[in-house]
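RETRY 2/3 - previous attempt timed out on the joint model. Re-submitting the same 890-residue input unchanged.
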Amino acid sequence: MSELAHGLLLQDQGRLEEAEACFYGVLAREPENDFVLGRLALCQMHQPGKKKSALASIDGAIRLRADEPFYHSLRSLILSDLRRGREAIESVDRALALDPDDSFTLSAKAAAYCAMDRWSEGEEWSRRALAVDPDNAMAANLLAHTLRLQGKSDLNAAAVARLLEADPEDSFAHVNAGWSALHRGDRRQAETHFREALRLDPESDAAREGLIESFRARSVFYRAYLSYCFFMQRFTGGKQWLIILGVYLAYQFSRRYLEKINPLYAGILAILWLAIVLWVWLAPGVGNFLILLDRSARLALKSGERHQGIAVGGGLALGVACAVAGFFTGYAPVLLAGVGLVASTIPASLAFANESRNGRIVFGVLAGLVYFGTLATFIIEAVRFPANGIHPITAALGGAALLAAIACTWLGNVRSLRHGSEG
Amino acid sequence: MADIPSLKQALAFSPENVPLLLMLGEAYLEQFSLEEARETYESALRVDPANPHARVQIARLLDLDGRGSEAILRLEQVCAEYPNYAQAWILRASFSLNENRAREAREFYERAISLDPTVKNEDLLKRIRQAGGQRVAEEPREPSPQRNADRQASAFYDPDFDDEDFDDDPFDDNDLEIEFEQRPNVDFERVGGMESVKEDIRMKILYPMENRELFEAYGKKAGGGVLLYGPPGCGKTLISRATAGEIKAKFLSVGLHQILDMWIGKSEEKLHEIFEMARRNAPAVLFFDEVDALAADRKDMRSSAGRTLINQFLAELDSESSKNDGVLVLGATNAPWHLDSAFLRPGRFDRLIFVPPPDEPARDQIIRIMAEGKPVSGLDPAGLAKKVKDFSGADLKAVFDQAIERALSEAMKTGKIVPVTQKDLLHAAKNVKPSTRKWFESARNYALYANQSGFYDDILHYLGIQK
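RETRY 2/3 succeeded.
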């Protein structure tokens, strides 16, 4: 018994890698043990970068015992984590055909809808799961999550209160409560909940990320950005694009209209639009930069987030300072360097703390290009100073750097360049 | 060892001198000139065809050459012809162990020791034990209550306590398949570096034991439980053995597999037996490796059976003070955060010692030990130790393994022994990532967010987060 029992204990303790090794040990002796394969899949799905292995393990368990609804539900949850919502629904439907009243399966279906950002269906299925088993913590958490993302604040507050009442020692319930508080704009309450979640489970990434958001939300500008994010989260991907396009068209229409009245108003609107667009890209990096200034809060940041804070927040501050100084002194090299540094913050905001390895490479290369262009421009113009006009090489390099920065605002919307392939 | 040219010179005058030939063979073996060694031993056999030493050494060389079956056959012949030749049995134990026959290896090892105690090889014995080679059942021994009572009566911490009357045979409990290591031959002097840990142990374990009466005057107990925690592979077991060596107590290392049993109630029974055995053999250090699995947080346990084992463990630790007198319970864990908080209350594991990755002197010593018996040339242990910051003992072993593999592949190409150089080791060190980093990532999270009682202050100090 001991290796399997030890593995189960380690899994309960959250020591997943060690538990996985134990399960592999058992499987070496009993390769046809579907129970162990199921436990192995559970272990793997909660480890970063192992979701595909989890899928292979649960497929192995299903091959050995296809009439076990739990395995199909688990497969559905893994697929949801991989953001393969449609397949997740197919899998969970198989489980429901075997056992239509299983609360875990019903909540797996809710999770599958959440993976597709279909919050209302997610809410519906988590309610069904709770109707069968009111103590189903996963369903209760999903319900609170879906309510929050639909903007149903009162219902969300009640759901969160119920969660905490049912188990005040549940780390995930505190994470939910933290997000709920952030949604309300109560960052202090959010920080308290996220800290409590971390006390209960110090390795919870969800709690750590929440805590960082609550730190960033100390800035009023960041809170505005959060409100924008919360608003957009209510909609599925396609609808989000429609909203962005609609706002863009409204901006273009307004700008042209204002140009006819007074070009100054149109200019102000254009600067405002640019600032808002930039802020959407730079807010997390600037937020991290502000956290870096707080001696105790900075400990919550991972190294990628620290680098992002330095490159984006530091780059922006230095860039603006250089641009302003160059503008007022008339020293063009510093002004150009400032503009280059500001431009570099866009690829830099995507190069660090990016889940996708490809994304880190692509945006890292683009950031390097912008830094190189900025440095070369500065050196060439400093050597030429004072000179009339801009040297053709400077123009080419500066143009390329700016183009690279603008390209990032488009590439940043490519999902595979922002999210890890294994979720 | 005499040098090879002078031995050759001597042999020029006396070519049939078997002792000289054997010495030359040893000299060649020492410098890994395996071909020459074999030729020399064969020359010795031409003069004295039955010489057991030359035959054993040829078997050893055949094994090194990858001709294991032939080596075993030759060795079996020596054992059959010279059943009282201890060296042959020791080598046979080693061969059996290599073939994963740990019990047989143990049997051969015991036989060798009984023939000639000087052939004792602690490292081999340890490897046999780790492979599951427990001591072969002997004739049932009469329990000796008087002996144990005498020993218990001898004050655990009495500096005048003379243990000469007790023999040094390892104590066995065949039912439990656990055995005491009689007075471990390791003490703090033999553990390189780790000065801060040693000092911590002195302050928290040794001085209280030495000044027992003083402690009692303040109403404090000197024995009890101490929890060692830190990243894996960083010497928690070694420092525990050295602690036992320091207080001149027997050392009993208990692994999870020795306690867990599939039958309900049996695990608790085994645990009780182990404590009873330690009490009978006091003064003793009872060392629980991976104690987090035995003392897991009860809210992590799915089965009630697991909880009863925890309750039993708590009961054993809480045993009336007189019962546990002379028994120091040491627990080691990589995951102190998974321990049930009940274990950390006074009287249980109420003293905590953080065992960090080996420091530079410790790494230096580990490197020296690892280089022993291997064809390493130009080794600069201090230089290498500097380059492998945060490496655990296991990581250093990985460095050596990689470097040796590289040298071996070269040797296979050239057909000659290629020594492992400092450069190879440094190169390998670059490829091995310290496994302790991952542990510190987790530990850092616990220290930052779940350190309300100051439990993890040592980790914060180590990481430089808290001054």
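Residues 283-417 of chain A form one domain. Closing ticket.
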